Amino acid sequence: MGAAVELVPYDPNWPGDFERIREGLQRLLAPYAVTIAHIGSTSIPGLAAKPLIDIDIILRGSADIPAATRILLDQGYEPRGNRYDDEVWAFMRRDGKPPERVYLCPPNNRTHERRMIFRDYLRGHQAEAAAYAKLKLELAETYRHDGDRYTAEKRHFVEAIIEKAVGERQA
């Protein structure tokens, strides 16, 4: 069983929180970071979300992961492992306001690319964003004490949106 699921209404401060966090990460990881992107539900205006900022950091290359990891660990980030078997390394910082979940990604990373497709599609399609919000709230109620199951049950919706977005791009 995973962690408890806590969703809160959209907070209009989240974009500013991300910018503040991004600036700090950019200073820390300047020799390694190419792009720092706001991902996850807090990056989609109006969407209920877990009250933490999800961030993908795209590095120059896989060889930069150890050095970037050392910097994050020195700054109090907790290592959370390679979560997707594609060289995406996760870190948590719980003492931040709001807390942060940071992912180190090599360039051209499939997980990062799919996250951006999903985020950008929901930002531009209100009906799909509303459907996702409804699903998240239902799943949070059903799997209140099982964060892993909550996440797994969203997967079909997420995959369908990514497939739709890619199809529309190709059309």
Summarize the structure.
InterPro entries: GrpB/CoaE, NT_sf. A hairpin with a 6-residue loop joins strand 4 and strand 5 (100-105). Helix content is 48%, strand content 18%.
Characterization of this structure:
By secondary structure, this protein is an alpha+beta fold. The chain has a single domain, classed as Beta Polymerase, domain 2 (2-Layer Sandwich), CATH 3.30.460. The chain has five helices and five strands, in the order αββαβββααα. It has helices at residues 14-29, 65-74, 110-124, 126-142, 147-170; strands at residues 33-39, 53-59, 78-82, 89-93, 100-105. A five-stranded mixed sheet has the order 1-2-5-4-3, with helices on both faces. A hairpin with a 6-residue loop joins strand 4 (89-93) and strand 5. Helix 3 packs across helix 4 (126-142), helix 3 crosses helix 5 (147-170) and helix 4 (126-142) packs antiparallel against helix 5 (147-170). The longest helix has 24 residues, at 147-170. It is globular. The termini are far apart. The mean pLDDT is 95.
